[in-house]
Design a protein that fits this description.
By secondary structure, the chain is α+β, with helices and mostly antiparallel strands. Helix content is about 55%, strand content about 20%.
Length: about 500
Amino acid sequence: MAETKREIERKYEATARTKLPDLARVAGVASAVDRGVTELDAVYYDTPDLRLAADSLTLRRRTGGDDEGWHLKFPVASGIRDEIRAPLSESLPKPLAGLIRSRTRTEDVVPVVRLRSSRSVRHLVDGAGALLAEVSVDTVHAERLPKGPDTSWTEIEVELADDADPEILDAVEKRLKKAGIDASTSSSKVARALAETGTPAPEVPDESPGNGNGDGDDTAGERVLAYVREQVEALVALDPAVRRDLPDSVHQMRVACRRLRSAFKSYRKVLDRTATDPLGDELKWLAGELGFARDQEVLHERLRARLDEIPRTLALGPVRARLRIWNHAHSGGARRKALAALDSARHLALLDALDALLADPPLLKAAHDAPEPVLAAAVLKDYDRLATRVDHALALHPGHDRDLAMHEARKAAKRARYAAEAARPSLGKPAKRFAKRVKAVQSLLGDHQDSVVARGALRDLGVQAHAAGESAFTWGLLHGQEEAAGAAREREFPEVWAKASAPELRAALTP
């Protein structure tokens, strides 16, 4: 079973002659306890073209020390990484293989570097003997695999202890700098080993508009592709986050799918739809597979909040137990369904197809034009589509048909908002204001749709309670509250829409 540890550390340059200063004199440190020398032997794995290193991920199998085993590290911020550990085994454990699959795809990982380190360790402890930080002086010998050059160096690592105050790292660094010891310029041992053995990790190309990688000038095509690339990178990065069940990861991955689909639809005069429509269909599939878990989570939280708001005297029967049973029945397979989608060949084929589109984009004539008029026209077209759907919804009487029409308007609002966000680098503040106003429309319509879905769930809960011989009163009460909430959103809708449809907002976007 893999476990995760948040690693917060800083690295410093050293030589064989470097002497550590007296770290017991660091503020807050009572003593520096010598923990002896440990011999470590680590083999680092990557694809032959170093895809993990390109994204600053490291995968190793290490023996020696008290944490020997497989380690996979994901960057979180400068000097902060999440280390996922698995027990020592001959082959790569399946949980770790899944976490790198969005990068490796169908490629096998192979040994690329072997690091043998002699680690001299000191523990910095406070007056009560609690560990504050671990300071290690590593003498490293690196060998490029299978049969490549080798290199050696010495470095110092200072790693924060679990639950310790990060300010101790600043205090230690101040002491080290006074002793003439400077921060390392390398982000990790494997990155340094790759660089010093002649094959550094690939650099991520600068794909920003106007950098010379596209038409040579800032064009509509470059702006749209920059946005598409950003969403594709998000899909790849969020894959392991979803597998790790990190907060909001499923939602963010679905948003990346929707933004890509919207970009392909909104900017059909820039990217050939014969190439993007099939991708849009696959993105819709992926978002749908991920959606079961997220939609059930949102619905359950809404119903639980409703229960929390009513007086206890109105909660008749085992309502909370009934809600738990219902939620378990509906969410049990949702996560398995999402993970199955991520593990599927269909998902990997989608990622490969998106990479292929970025490598050889199907640009149309408008893609070579200046971005402002092309992108503004696309945003306004989506705005007109939204306005048509809103007018249709407002013309209907309250009820099922209006509920459906408002849901369709919500989807149109989302598409118009994403189009404006993609155009913001070109259109500036007008696109920002437009996206903000349309987001308000989207949010209101989203809350309305949530009330519609909640009413259906509450009816089911009432039926189940009645069939089990329980009182259905509370579920009917909550159903009435959701009806009132939906009606309130409908009353607010014209005013919110009026702000988004203000003539000056449209005029600001008009080329």
